[in-house]
Amino acid sequence: MSPSLLAGFLLGFSLILAIGAQNAFVLRQGLRREHVFVICLTCALSDAVLIAAGIAGFGSLAERLPWLEVAMRFGGAAFLTWYGLRSLLSAWRGGAAMQVAQGAAAGLRPALVTVLAFTWLNPHVYLDTVVLIGSISAQYERLPFALGAMTASFVFFFSLGYGAGLLAPLFARPAAWRVLDTVVGLTMLAIAAKLLAM
User: Fold this and answer.
1) Phi-psi region of 106 (alpha: psi -120 to 50; beta: other; left: phi over 0)
2) pTM recorded for the entire structure
């Protein structure tokens, strides 16, 4: 496997692993078995578009402005450090159990509108995919790195959506969220350290 492909996959997977409104919604839809394929596909395709835009745009800018790559690398390291520390603080304070709403199934259109809002109206998605992945991609072969990050999105969302039934008993316990937040936090700090060491 190409080092650039693997690096893109690992970075993409670790960034998307952080639990937020979008991931919680996908998990909820999976637990309820409602429109799982369409919701997962929408999330993964949205990520792919944003990753491609970040890598293509940042690459051309970096060629014209050599100082930009350094600035973005240090900015990315700062963001990852903050993100990692926030996840570790959340783990230390204790997570909340995943609550699955009961009731009648929602239609496809409301579910799509909701997941698109969680995806495209979240400022962190632009920091993660366009800025952070775009800036880090300058350190690698861009095409394999992009494919790795995009593959991570597809693997993550479809695993989360369809694996939700298996995860239901696990995420009913706050301790599971603490473990997840700890893993995410340590991963982010490790990536930040690697960026600073370049």
Assistant:
1) beta
2) 0.69
